[in-house]
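Per reviewer request, we include the raw input and output of the structure prediction for the construct analysed in the revised manuscript.
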Amino acid sequence: MKPGLTAFSFHTNGRTIRSISWLWIWICMICGLAFPSYAQRPFIRLQQPDRTTLVVHDSVQYISGATCKGCQLIVQDTPVKVYATGGFAARVYLHAGENPIVLQARNKEGLANNLQIIYRYEPPQPITVRDFAIARIYTNPAVTSWLAPGDIIHIKVIAQAGCKAFWLHHLPLTEMVSEEDSLAGIYEGNYQVLATDQLNGPIPIILQNATGQTITAYTPNAFYTWPATAVVGKTMGDRPFMQYSLGEDRLGAAKRSYLDTGICMQVDGRLGDFYRVKLAPDQHAYVPVENLQLLPEGTPVPRAILGSWKVWGDSLYDYVQIQTGTRLPYDVQIYDHPGQIIVRLYGAVSNTNWIFQYLSAKEISQVHLHTVADGVVEARINLKHPQPWGCTLQYAGAALVVKVKRQPANLNLAHLHIAIDAGHGGSNAGATGPTGTKEKDLTLLLAKELKAALQHVGVQTIMTRTTDTSLSMLERENLLRQADPDLLLSLHLNASNNPIDISGTSTYYHYAGFRPLSLAIYHHLVAAGLQEFGNIGNFNFALNGLTDFPNALIEVAFLTNPADEARILNPAFREKIIHAIISGLKDFLDECKK
């Protein structure tokens, strides 16, 4: 031991190994001296789970992370594959109670490193209330709500069995006893809001036992009565939108349509952070509270008698102008083969006897008008080409203008302007692979490689980001609208809590008319050797919601799967991916030429 150097040791295989300090290793490296191989100590770095002691409620758990390249990994005495990147994934099965799981990484010299994860598995148990008490109250709607006559409140109460339960107007709840699974103490009921109701906060629930004792608990969320008079709201803010329901998804509920600002619509309730709007007698939608300004009491519910329509074109686009007289809510659908754009106006009645169609329109072949329901008028815009290239809806005064994008005059790849969106970035890292690879870094790398390959064949490109920067979806959308590309490709890497069984590639679209682009690329990604995860439609990703140009979201592979991660980190495989995307673009364009 050199004087002044610090020694350290670690224990493996029943013996203690003494090693020189990192300073001595540095001296050896500078002087060209050899030093023992055991300085390369094995390690285990976890990605999933994110801690080594945890309580879980599922008997199957997954472990992923990284170890030294070339090391052997043992999990509970079972060898686990270590990929060339050092990444690994393992599945473990638990019994009720405490489960110590030991991982051991061993290098070629026999040096080992152990890591223990302790899972406490608590199997899900039905709530059984043995005391005279109310344990849980669930409601639907499950948020603080302002409700109108005719709305339904559903309630479920978990309490001591064999009691009587009451709620609004002292109406009884029904105890749902299942002889099959012996569950008791679950009380349920429905209530239809009346015009005479004055809901004003949490609803009391009264439980009465056999001796006549009562206890009271309250719903976790409050309920209020929506005003009996008509209420009107006006859209405002950036990119207001309507959604079909309040259903939950990691990307939010399914969106019905993005809207222009200044659109008036009837509001007949509020559920949490959304106003419920009445589009037609039998149709509702939901608009975020921040995107709808309530107008003064007495504002008339918007209704419009549609006047004349006009169809024409300029040097770049075709247009359909619909005289509405007021800004009405709308939604849009885009279809291919045959190419068609369908716009529905709500709160409209047709008195259209004139549809002026001019020869200057190059892409629109014909426009039809249909009344599909009371207060709902539909414009069907038929296109000359089977593949639509997008549209933009915007009010000009009191007229709705549908700007229709024409098919590019030259469908050779080199003549197109293609936008590339590198997903995530900055503070939004996205998914993380077993070795710690960040999705934001790989999407930017792939975007730059795709840009270089496209530019090599003469394609003009625009990227939403070229550095590790944070960009909101709204910022990306505004940038893309200003650039007005011919096509948009958004690059991402997928993630799953199951790093073993879930892998592969997928592409996504929202509007049916843009599916051919995503499908053509998907075919080539699968042919490149990736597993199928699907070509997925009606997807709620914000950039798929753009109607302005054909677009596709590409989830190249599952970064959380160690095999997929190893592929994506391989430059040769990334080259195959870039080639697959470009081949898909060419196939899409060739189909458009037919």
